[in-house]
Design a protein that fits this description.
This is DUF5641 domain-containing protein. With 168 residues, the chain is an alpha+beta fold. The chain has two domains: 2-65, no CATH class; 69-168, SH3 type barrels, CATH 2.30.30. Helix content is 31%, strand content 21%. It has five helices and seven strands; from the N terminus they run H-H-E-E-H-H-H-E-E-E-E-E. The strands form two sheets. A five-stranded antiparallel β-sheet has the order 6-5-4-3-7. Strand 1 and strand 2 form a beta hairpin. The relative contact order is 0.08.
Length: 168
């Protein structure tokens, strides 16, 4: 405001806003909207410094109304979410995939079993869930492939690429 009052040069980023002081000495934005049919306050909004008390109050109020926890908290939640899925993938998922095919016969996947479609190219939280619609046994009468119904349609997958979910 001091630079405007004393007609000194403005910073380039600030100059782009074509600021001016109105009759009451309020710093406002100029620009191309000056010939529009909007009201004066809509054509020329007030400019406040980022650390101004009113700006802090408005931002704080908006965060509380919309339950916005802030960037640091969101970063913590995202990291916690990723850590959970990394541990789940490393510590639990392999127990669902264990197949002791040479030692003893495993429980075959049956029609109606709820499964996860394993995809090595995407994180586990994006894997699709589905239900077995049809089983396709090999020549030895052991199920090798399954047809799975997902939200995106029916898919045919090898048994090694599906994870049966435990059911009660």
């Amino acid at each position: 405001m001091y630079r405007l009052k004393s007609q000194r040069p403005l910073q380039r980023t600030f100059k782009k806003l074509t600021p001016f002081l109105d009759k009451l000495g309020v710093l406002r934005v100029g620009g191309r909207l000056s010939n529009s049919y909007f009201s004066f306050s809509q054509r020329h909004p007030c400019l406040l410094p980022s650390k101004h008390r009113l700006v802090v109050i408005i931002i704080d109020h908006t965060h509380k109304v919309f339950l916005h926890p802030g960037a640091q908290t969101l970063h913590s939640f995202t990291r916690m979410h990723q850590d959970f899925w990394r541990r789940w993938h490393r510590e639990y998922l392999h127990t669902l995939l264990q197949r002791s095919k040479w030692l003893d016969s495993s429980v075959p996947i049956e029609i109606g079993t709820l499964i996860l479609l394993k995809d090595e190219l995407s994180p586990p939280q994006t894997w699709h869930i589905g239900r077995v619609e049809c089983v396709h046994p090999g020549r030895d009468n052991v199920t090798r492939m399954v047809t799975v119904r997902t939200a995106r349609g029916n898919l045919k997958r090898p048994v090694s690429k599906v994870c049966p979910l435990p059911s009660n």
